[in-house]
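Suppose a colleague, Dr. K., hands you the sequence of a protein chain of 172 amino acids and asks what its three-dimensional shape might be. Before reaching for any lab equipment, you can write down a predicted structure in token form. Begin with the sequence itself:
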Amino acid sequence: MPSNIEIKANYDDERLSSIKSLLGEKVENLLQVDTFFKSNEGRLKLREEVVNGKANCTLIGYIRTNDSGPSRSDFTKTCILNPLEMKQILTSTLGVAGVVRKERELYLVKDPDSALVSRVHIDLVDGLGRFLELEVIPKLQLPNEMLSAKGCGLLRTIDLIPSIPGNAGGGF
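The predicted structure, expressed as tokens, is then:
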């Protein structure tokens, strides 16, 4: 099962332009609607998104703690060709836990010293505000501690403190 380390942090609007300048070039803008379904184990969400004008839908199952600071996330995902039908099936069988709408800017940051790429999301979440989420994605099997250290180091570079629980920013 694929995994990554996720770290979430708050930021204030005054710092946004300096954060973006440290991250480099933005990869894409996304509009996302995540419908979370009730689940006894882990989390299950149907992500409907528009990426550069193109609609996509992905079903994502994952297990992650709600700890502040770095959290390991083990996930599985699959592309959904008929989102409306899938949402109806999951809603009728599991029930909806919540819906999160967000605008996301995606940046990719490569670590020159290792085989790591970090996805940095700058999110504006309806009803919840602004969040920065960092996903450290290993190319090789590396210890969680190393992944966490690399992610925290990147956050220190942009002068943010990883302090938000894993369900902040709209996770259920």
